[in-house]
Every structure is written in C-alpha cells, then in structure tokens.
C-alpha cells in the first residue's frame, strides 16, 4: 500500500485512541474536581465524597494500567510455564471475589505438564480479564467453568464458560474495539488487551455466545516443545 496513505491511517488511529483516552480520563477527573470544589466549601462533604473520590481515582489508575499493558514493548521475558499451575493460581486469586458475587468456579484442569512459552503475568492477565467479564455478566450469580485440555499435539485449549447475559452478534463484532463497554464502570480495554496478548503469544481465540444463556470463550495457545 502507498506509504503516505499508511502513515495517515496510522495517525488517524492514534488520534482516535488519544481522543478515547482523553475522554475516558476526563470524566473521572471532572467528577474529582467537582468534589474538591464542594469540599473546599464545607467539611461536611468530606465523609460523604471521599469514598466516591477513591473510586474515581482507582478508575483512572485502572485505565492507565490497561493502556500501559497495550503499550508494553513486545519483547517481554518469555518463560516455559505449566499452564495448569498458572490457571490454578489465577483461580485462587479470583475465588474470593467470585464467592462474594454468588459465583461458583468450576475448574476442570485434569491435564498436567502442559507447558507453554509465555510471559506468565500477561497470560494470567487474560484469564483474569475473561473470568472477571464472566462474573460481571452474572449479577445474580451462577457458575463459571474453567476447563483446560490438549487440543492436538501442538495446541492447548482453555475454555471459560459462563451462564451470564450473553453477547449479541452485533456486540460480538465490537469486542476488542478500544473503550467498547456496555458497563457503567467498564473501561472497554480488557478484551483489546487480551487479544493483543494472545496474538503476541501466537495463539487464537474463539467466542460463542447466546443472549440470555451465556458465553463460552476458548483460548488456544501453542504448546512448548520439550527442548
Ligand atoms: P469492560 O469489561 O471494561 O466492559 P471488556 O473489554 O473486558 O471491557 O469487555 C467489553 C464488553 O464485552 C463488555 O462491556 C461486555 O459487554 C462484553 N463482554 C465481554 N465478556 C463478556 C461475557 N462473558 N458475557 C457477556 N458480555 C461480555
Ligand atoms: Mg472486562
């Protein structure tokens, strides 16, 4: 393709991303400014607004950390990692939150010694993102299956199944667009970050969903050789 055209496309994508970031961060900042203004008028607002201010600050922090994940140089430290063990660590991390939301995690990780070549923190992050989305899709509670199995001799499959609200055809196409979120407090960066990480690891993802019934996300990652 024409070099100049490619450059201008890149610039316009950068511009869209910058506009999105500015917008996402300006909202909580505007709220914070309002609270500070009120507090400077009356001490009585402090008790009332401090917790909300803390939430807004945490939201900015989350957006920034997800953006940093996107911007990370691709040459990360790759290690040989037992995926089953990594998944178990993720489940321990997330279990307390799940219980609080009336969610039962149903792990089915029979296989052992399934190694992948990866940046373990990044791979943990994708499964945290998917399980969190599954939890958020089930405000009344429910079950989340986390299954790991060998797909063939080259690939390992992790399947995350929820019984949540599901995703429509039209919404499926929007997944991974920066800042696409249907949640009031969503950042709309989780899927984008996850797609990037999976791509970086030579893997792929498949999503199946039925509105009102639930969603299944399958991640395929290349098995590491025995060398
Ligand atoms: P966020 O979680 O901040 O909204 P994500 O990028 O993680 O951003 O997800 C984008 C959108 O994809 C969500 O707002 C939601 O509408 C949809 N989504 C993702 N996973 C699921 C799921 N398991 N069930 C239903 N909807 C989902
Ligand atoms: Mg999310």
From TrEMBL:
<protein>
    <recommendedName>
        <fullName>histidine kinase</fullName>
    </recommendedName>
</protein>
<feature type="domain" description="Histidine kinase">
    <location>
        <begin position="20"/>
        <end position="225"/>
    </location>
</feature>
């Amino acid at each position: 393709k024409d070099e100049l055209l490619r450059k201008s496309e890149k610039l316009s994508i950068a511009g869209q991303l910058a506009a999105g970031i500015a917008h996402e961060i300006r909202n909580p900042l505007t709220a914070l400014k309002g609270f500070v203004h009120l507090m400077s008028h009356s001490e009585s607002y402090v008790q009332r607004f401090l917790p909300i201010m803390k939430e807004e600050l945490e939201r900015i922090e989350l957006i920034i950390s997800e953006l940093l994940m996107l911007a990370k140089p691709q040459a990360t430290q790759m290690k040989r990692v037992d995926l089953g063990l990594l998944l178990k660590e993720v489940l321990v991390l997330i279990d307390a939150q799940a219980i609080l939301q009336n969610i039962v995690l149903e792990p089915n990780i029979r296989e052992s010694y399934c190694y992948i070549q990866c940046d373990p923190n990044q791979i943990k992050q994708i499964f945290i993102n998917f399980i969190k989305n599954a939890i958020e899709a089930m405000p009344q509670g429910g079950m989340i299956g986390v299954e790991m199995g060998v797909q063939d001799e080259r690939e390992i499959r992790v399947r995350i199944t929820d019984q949540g609200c599901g995703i429509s055809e039209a919404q499926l196409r929007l997944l991974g667009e920066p800042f696409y979120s249907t949640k009031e407090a969503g950042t709309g960066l989780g899927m984008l970050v996850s797609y990037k990480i999976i791509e970086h690891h030579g893997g792929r993802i498949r999503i199946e969903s039925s509105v009102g019934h639930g969603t299944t996300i399958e991640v395929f990652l290349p098995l590491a050789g025995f060398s």
